[in-house]
Amino acid sequence: MNKGIYIATLEPNSGKSIVSLGLMRTLLGKTAKVGYFRPVIDDSKGDTKDNHISTVLSFFDIPLDYEDAYAFTTSQLIKKRNKGKSGEILDTIITKYKNLEDQFDFVLVEGSDFTGEGSVFEFDTNVLIAKNLGLPVILVGSGVGKTEDELLGSLQIAYTSFTERDVSVMGVVANKVQPENLQIAKKGLRNFLPDHVEVFAIPFTEKLAHPTIKEIVQELDGKVLFGNEFLDNQTGNFGVGAMQLRNYLTHLKQDSLVITPGDRADIILGALQANISTNYPRISGIILTGGLVPEEPILKLIEGLSQIVPIVSVDDGTFSVTNRVGNIKSKIYATSKSKIETSLTVFEKEVSFDQLIERLINLEPKGITPRMFQYGLMKRAATAKKHIVLPEGTDPRILNAAVQLVELDIVQISLLGELDKIKEVAVQHSIPLNLEKVRVINPITSEHFEDYVNTFYELRKHKNVNMDIARDWMADVSYYGTMMIYKGHADGMVSGAAHTTAHTIKPALQFIKTKPGVSVVSSVFFMCLEDRVSVFGDCAINPNPSAGELAEIAISSAESSLAFGIEPKIAMLSYSSGTSGKGEDVDRVREATEIVKSKRPDLKIEGPIQYDAAVDAAIGKSKLPDSEVAGQASVLIFPDLNTGNNTYKAVQRETGALAIGPMLQGLNKPVNDLSRGCTVEDIFNTVIITAIQAQGI
Does the record's keyword annotation contain Disulfide bond (predicted)? Predict the structure, then answer.
């Protein structure tokens, strides 16, 4: 059974990183443990590590030591080859690769970068390594600076070179192709490739071509005066500030890099002021040329500003600096989160390796891993691009999550709040929010405001609500967002980063209402443990549920579990297992279990049962040997909120588990509540599950 694939390229700067990142994400969505290996890496300066390895291991959290992820540096390889030790080279590479095969279900192998002594030597080396590892290959070629014939011709030669050596080529990627030529490239590849070889074309993406400030500092050997924490800022373009300020400001574009002599205080201060102004684009940084540094009063003024971009001093003159910046070949670093997300977004949009992977591997993963679960969530959300409203539009965490969500293009986002305030927060926190990709709604000035007021009045007038009260409530973002869902103007809502749970849920209970046959709104967390995903309920809503309410929570949680691809095996948790325990609390759990059995005899359920007996196979077998749930429970129902909330947080902190949720269940339309201590990742994941709920699961 094949356990690996080799990514090979034809030349330097082919952009194979985008293929490696995208393929790694695809693989992690298909199988539990994926390793990463580079037979040959470039020589590094000092103690720096290979950028490709650092980026992949870090971003995908792969449990692999850096030294185990490669075999040789380029100089080590050349020395051994010159000493006639080619056999030793291959033996070492094969040994290290086989060690990874033993540790992982699948291994992604990435070829060399073509920055060594010669392209022909490196290409032949990659063919030889792939052949000796017995791995199929994905070929990547760049369209930059090439005609159609040159690109297709080089890929055809490369394909022939591999296949003539009995190396299977499973896919060919024409990368960095102008968007208008994508179909031409794919058609040209299909003309000479057999049907079993997958054909892809990826467009040239300007954002990936531009360097970060950190790359520019390294290239120019610059000295960072201010803004060290923003060195990963992505440049969009660059321009020289040599004219008067009033003229230069008109030339600023989004993420401009300002290059100016260090004594031009007017340009420096003007650019910094433009950066925090809502009337001008954001700049990425300032390069001060000629070894000149602003005078002390100017430095003191800059130091006191609330918002500072990287300001870097370099010795070279403006002309030289501009040319050198223009010649930088940008890379993707582990800290370049924006570039990584862009790469993954472009890959997801243009490339589908799903069929290729299905042919490539025939693995049956043991359970659902967190990475597989998250990958599956994003795939499902993308099948129907739902509209999610985020009422807390001025919370920086909400805006950062919105950036990630719109970049992946799997949901539509509406932010509630005043446009100017949202812009201000984005600028203050250096959040690259593209307001062309999200909708910003100020409830009070919205075209729907009066209609919403009238609707709310009609729905609640029996509760002594008059028009003035209705107008006050509709000015509240939680009520306005919920009304958007009620009226069909949005598919779901996520709130709670800055509001209480009650504030989020109350309007939903007032007019979204519960599903037919459901009387209890409850919640679940998807607890992504190392080797499985468990469903915890209810850890967020109901303080002391009755036996009937516990039964309803269990049934709702089982349905949620099933809807998200997890077979429900329900454990009704208590301080005792089976019939041994006595007391009001354990009797309530026992009664709830019997109610579930009578209402849903199709569900596998055990209760009362202790946590360890529910999840540990050995303990479960010893305490309840005849149970089909003990030791393998996937849905764990806690007897009260105190127990559930503390347990999920303890498991999360002690095991490093990812807790996705809470996801509310029982409402007619999806409204989900965040913790006020939520992270950007929490918001991102909650929006994704809300979008899936909105698909009508």
Answer: no
